[in-house]
Design goal:
Shape: globular
Order of helices and strands: EEEEEEHHHHHHHH
Largest sheet: 2 strands, antiparallel
Number of strands: 6
Protein name: DUF2225 domain-containing protein
CATH class of the largest domain: Mainly Alpha
InterPro entries: DUF2225
Number of helices: 8
Oligomer: single chain
Helix content: 40-55%
Bound molecules: zinc ion
Number of domains: 2
Strand order of the largest sheet: 1-2
Length: about 220
């Protein structure tokens, strides 16, 4: 029984049903999880298969995308879709490099279709993580810095979990963890402290934050 199967999903642009590859849940084997949430898999990598390219119209999307506005659809039709490449590996098994290429195009789609900033940041983190997998430190850091900037902007403009697209305490932990991954000790300390002192942060997030900060201190002998 192959570990990869074809999943049907609806394209947010042409609204037709398209197919993409996914990892069968019984074949998903978690090897370890880094403290910033990145999961290492034994066997097929689940992250590789999140971006989808529609086989009908070329649009590249993530299932977290929201409905497209009429003006956005028009721009896609005239300017964007004709220029998008048809990627053969979008419909097959993928390597990490191919997945990164799809994520970058997916991020571009997210930008031009005005998806939430939280989605753009999430895609950026995925690109950073896949570069971690390839041990491409420079690219990992670059994408992580971009993502943390986005998350900080979200924090400053925060309204609520639905509109911003991420719960408030999860956002705080994400920022602290990204700074820890970037080894920016002062920033990480500041954001973890904010979590420890907040009355609004859930006990679960506080517990995770404490564990992450302890681990960071051990590793960096602080
Ligand atoms: Zn489509």
């Amino acid at each position: 029984m192959p570990a990869i199967y074809s999943k049907k999903c609806k394209c947010p642009y042409c609204l037709k049903e398209t197919e993409t590859k996914r990892v069968l849940s019984r074949h998903i084997r978690v090897a370890q999880t880094d403290f910033d949430g990145f999961i290492h898999y034994d066997g097929p990598n689940v992250y590789y298969y999140e971006p989808v390219q529609c086989t009908h119209c070329r649009f590249i999307f993530h299932e977290a995308f929201e409905k497209l506005r009429p003006d956005v659809r028009e721009r896609l039709t005239t300017d964007i879709l004709p220029a998008l490449p048809v990627l053969a590996f979008a419909t097959t098994e993928r390597t990490a490099e191919q997945a990164i290429q799809l994520y970058k195009l997916c991020l571009y789609s997210a930008q031009v279709t005005l998806q939430k900033e939280s989605i753009l940041a999430m895609l950026g983190v995925r690109i950073a993580w896949l570069n971690r997998l390839l041990e491409n430190k420079e690219q990992e850091v670059l994408w992580m810095e971009r993502a943390v900037e986005k998350y900080e902007a979200l924090y400053l403009d925060y309204t609520d979990a639905v509109r911003t697209g991420i719960p408030h305490d999860v956002l705080l932990l994400r920022i602290a963890d990204l700074y820890a991954s970037l080894e920016r000790t002062d920033d990480a300390k500041q954001w973890y402290s904010l979590i420890f002192q907040s009355k609004k942060v859930s006990d679960r997030i506080k517990k995770d934050a404490r564990e992450h900060w302890e681990l960071y201190r051990e590793r960096h002998q602080i």
